[in-house]
């Protein structure tokens, strides 16, 4: 039996424990009791995702106990949103396009004025070792750089030490979990991010979250951001691409778009469709909403969906409302690319 003490015993006169003239029972926990509570919480809250391993520079190592996968409340990433992150897919024991994601991660940290305590190669080694410790072959590696803990002030002071965190999440393989029939999207009413913040992959995801909730409430898969000039930007966590009437693969350009690693890879892979004549070209350009809705095909590109066909935007069906052949071909190319484990895109984890 836990030896938790009732706060009423020690603070009977405390007005903070009285609400509407009713006494509130609050437990004062020891460290070991709090850990037991965390363990019990994790056991009860198991969902589809399993957290297999976590690295934290705070304790300078890796844990495989989900109850210990925590960060300090006074970390500036928690209470000020001063942190950046990135995600790499684990496919058949390989980290897909890992170095591309890691480079973007470090660019985001620099733009957010977070100077890592480790150099790039050390961070890379830590992340690979975390995956190795997890023994995960199919899942996700997610990692963060934070301004670090130390206080609850607005700006981190000179004594703050930036923190590195990483977690390995076991997920069903993306190779077999893509929407085959296409999805619906809506035009998001949530204001688009300013260029300075749109191009940093930071933890400030409230606009993204609200856009996704809005889509969910509308029975759609995602919201699409449109800028003040009427040009298509991106989804809440994905890039957007189209196949034009001229059979070109087109992706919106602009300063309000985060350059997606998956999108860049898809554009490169799409070059073989140009060579075999299925596409006439590939380019980045401004795309109006009208042009997007009148395209032959529309798709979402991202590490969480790979290449996801869009068959309806608001009340407008894209072309005939069916999944297009180019979208399907690009998805097949990405899947083949991931399974190939080529040295240029696949970083092996030596378990």
Automatic annotation (TrEMBL):
InterPro entries: Aminotrans_IV, Aminotransferase-like, BCAT-like_C, BCAT-like_N, Class-IV_PLP-Dep_Aminotrnsfr. It comes from the Eukaryota. Belongs to the class-IV pyridoxal-phosphate-dependent aminotransferase family. This is Uncharacterized protein. It comes from Stylosanthes scabra.
């Amino acid at each position: 039996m836990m030896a938790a003490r009732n706060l009423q015993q020690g603070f009977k006169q405390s007005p903070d424990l009285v609400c509407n003239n009713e006494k509130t029972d609050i437990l004062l926990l020891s460290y070991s009791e709090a850990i037991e509570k965390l363990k019990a919480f994790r056991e009860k809250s198991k969902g589809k995702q399993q957290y297999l391993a976590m690295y934290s520079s705070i304790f300078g190592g890796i844990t495989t106990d989900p109850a210990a996968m925590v960060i300090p409340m006074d970390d500036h990433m928690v209470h000020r949103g001063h942190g950046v992150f990135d995600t790499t897919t684990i496919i058949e024991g390989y980290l897909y396009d890992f170095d591309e994601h890691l480079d973007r991660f470090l660019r985001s940290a620099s733009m957010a004025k977070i100077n890592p305590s480790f150099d790039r190669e050390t961070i890379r080694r830590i992340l690979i070792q975390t995956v190795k410790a997890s023994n995960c072959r199919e899942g996700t590696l997610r990692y963060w750089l934070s301004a670090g803990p130390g206080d609850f002030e607005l700006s981190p002071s000179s004594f703050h030490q930036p923190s590195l965190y990483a977690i390995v999440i076991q997920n069903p393989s993306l190779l077999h979990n893509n929407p085959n029939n296409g999805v619906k999207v809506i035009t998001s009413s949530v204001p688009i991010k300013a260029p300075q913040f749109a191009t940093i992959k930071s933890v400030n995801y409230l606009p993204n979250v609200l856009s996704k909730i809005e889509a969910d409430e509308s029975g759609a898969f995602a919201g699409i951001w449109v800028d003040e000039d009427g040009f298509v930007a991106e989804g809440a966590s994905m890039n957007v691409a189209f196949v034009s009437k001229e059979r070109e693969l087109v992706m919106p350009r602009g300063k309000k778009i985060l350059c997606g690693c998956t999108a860049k890879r898809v554009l490169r892979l799409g070059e073989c469709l140009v060579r075999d004549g299925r596409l006439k070209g590939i380019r980045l350009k401004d795309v109006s909403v009208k042009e997007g809705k009148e395209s032959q095909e529309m798709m979402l590109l991202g590490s969480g969906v790979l290449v996801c066909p869009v068959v309806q935007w608001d009340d407008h069906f894209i072309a005939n409302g069916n999944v297009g052949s180019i979208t399907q071909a690009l998805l097949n190319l990405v899947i083949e690319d991931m399974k190939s484990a080529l040295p240029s895109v696949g970083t092996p984890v030596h378990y």
